[in-house]
UniProtKB/TrEMBL annotation, chains A, B:
Protein name according to UniProt: Aldehyde reductase
Database matches in InterPro entries: ADH_Fe/GldA, ADH_Fe_C, ADH_Fe_CS, BDH-like
The keyword Oxidoreductase is annotated on this UniProt entry: yes
Organismal lineage: Bacteria, Pseudomonadati, Bacteroidota, Bacteroidia, Marinilabiliales
Keywords, sorted A to Z: Oxidoreductase
One of the Pfam families matching this protein, by short name: ADH_Fe_C
Gene3D superfamilies in UniProt: 3.40.50.1970, Dehydroquinate synthase-like - alpha domain
GO molecular function per UniProt: alcohol dehydrogenase (NADP+) activity; butanol dehydrogenase (NAD+) activity; metal ion binding; methylglyoxal reductase (NADPH) (acetol producing) activity
Species of the source: Draconibacterium sediminis
Amino acid sequence: MYNFEFRNPVKILFGKESISKLSGEIPTDANILMIYGGGSIKRTGVYDQVMAALKGCTVEEFSGIEANPHYETCMKAVDVVKEKNIDFLLAVGGGSVLDATKFIAAAALYENGDPWDILAAGVAVEKALPLGAVLTLPATGSEMNGNSVITRAERQEKKAFGSPLVMPQFSVLDPECVFTLPDRQVANGIVDAFVHVMEQYLTFKVNSPLQDRLAESILTTLIEEGPKVLADRKNYEAAANFMWCATMALNGMIAVGVPQDWSTHVIGHELTAFHGIDHGRTLAIVLPGVMHVKRDNKKDKILQYGERIWGITAGNEDERIDAVIARTVEFFESLGVPCRLPEYDVPESTITKIVDRFKQSEAKIGEKQDMDYLEIEKILRNRL
Amino acid sequence: MYNFEFRNPVKILFGKESISKLSGEIPTDANILMIYGGGSIKRTGVYDQVMAALKGCTVEEFSGIEANPHYETCMKAVDVVKEKNIDFLLAVGGGSVLDATKFIAAAALYENGDPWDILAAGVAVEKALPLGAVLTLPATGSEMNGNSVITRAERQEKKAFGSPLVMPQFSVLDPECVFTLPDRQVANGIVDAFVHVMEQYLTFKVNSPLQDRLAESILTTLIEEGPKVLADRKNYEAAANFMWCATMALNGMIAVGVPQDWSTHVIGHELTAFHGIDHGRTLAIVLPGVMHVKRDNKKDKILQYGERIWGITAGNEDERIDAVIARTVEFFESLGVPCRLPEYDVPESTITKIVDRFKQSEAKIGEKQDMDYLEIEKILRNRL
């Protein structure tokens, strides 16, 4: 395994009625800005639970964070932060709200010009407001890491940044929040968590048997528990197991000492930028193409994944890899998530646009940094 | 799964030559007390590496921490802390040195009388000196948690305490430290890490499939990598995998939301207190007895462990449980660790002394808090 550094100080408060513990985690004299999305938290009762827990605290609100949160929206929240002297941000929602809150935390204290540079130019975050989270949708893992992805709508650009300074001080995970989620969000969340694991696991072998098995543990449990959540939204135990899998998938624990890919995400972000396709769904589209085109780079790990997760051992290596890809697609489709571009009405011309972007940037991505625009084109054409 | 809270802010610096990164983790103006054991770090070169990394820093030394560190020795270190105005403790050694350092950190700032109360009366730690660690022996997991076990030699008592305030700020894990360890310490470390997992895993089912699989991942990897380390001490990859398993076994990650046992440890501590038997070896003695006597409480988990770890599926439940216990003993013995009391020259009279202690304290232990002195006697007699 590689040398590594690891630190994850996020405090997790997990379980039934855990939202009530919120106030103990925020300084009593804080000026809180509660950040949320389109108002579903009011329908589900989470808003009321949060407000009850924060009784006596100074709380301002900022709502309207959209899926694939917009830079433009975040900057409006930054104005509120400055105007109201906010010193603590509380994200209440799913990954989009959490990602937005992280960017707002960094942008509010950014002093070197346009905060867009944090995303587009990779300028390091030097300070950020403290933040906490109440997670309502298991999927992105944002509740226990310092990563954030923001979209600049006007430019159809989706960019990521990361900093330990925007890790939540705490995240409240109440599995009962899953009870009110629509099928589509549950399915997206399962795929998202699954592909997060794959990005850190389906690379090449570096003799890291523990990390491999931990990753496989999350995959197996998602395959086992995910469909139970879809079948019965009030199954608390299944919801809890799914929720904890999604957090563990991206809190850094399975990433230590191993190579990471993330090409599926980078390509998927382009599909969201151009067509607004749900993030999880873009991953279900792209991953099978990455597995197909990078079957040489990833051979050993694809075969290990196929054998340990799906019991695929018959046939020569190429046949087994094809079977593994087919089985993965079958799993995503069983959740109601289609895996091909035409099923999302994406025209072939979009492939040209995306490929052009990668050609111009001369970026090479993937665990070996060897995936160029030509391979990205092959991957996307494989998904037609 | 149960509700839980989890937070582990320890920074891990893992890998070859990671000791050189030490100075970046300690405030430059700190008055450091470097705490170590009997001087093996001088023979192995770790002492020189640490001193080179701390060049320019103010470093006092306190050596002589023994295995199963003594309260009496720790209190001498507390005197040095006060005398020299120490404000940062650096533990360099194995679990004993780390545990001692944690107690010294808490005792040095204890203001309510005799610091022994932290151990014997469970008085909460309210403040502690900051500490860091350079781990030389994978085993106890102390490098990534807030737990400590201290022995009061004059009273033959071994007591534990825990506090987030004594979690190391950082721990340096260089697998090359394993190269110079004697067989006995490697074997003890493998057993110690293995039984740490068992204490958190071999209880009763609470529908926690992810935690179960994470625990099984560590067990499987220890079984696979441990013997490689014993066979070839210079196998860096095996040493690294073993080292990371030992840390992951007790950093809280597999304990979230599940019941925990720890009766093997509590009983094992008594064997160390009376006979000075190595901690890991006491666990190898006691665990098979606990599995035998608590076979009803633990039935489902013993059968799952037997099937998933050892492939034991033949026979009725009692036969399978017997086979699982035998296979576990066989594993410990294959490492050179005997599992019966007479092999350590422990007389039957010691059983009486230990049972009397539990009878007098009226303590009940184990994951259901239902193990009394009568069962403890059965467990120990099973190990004759």
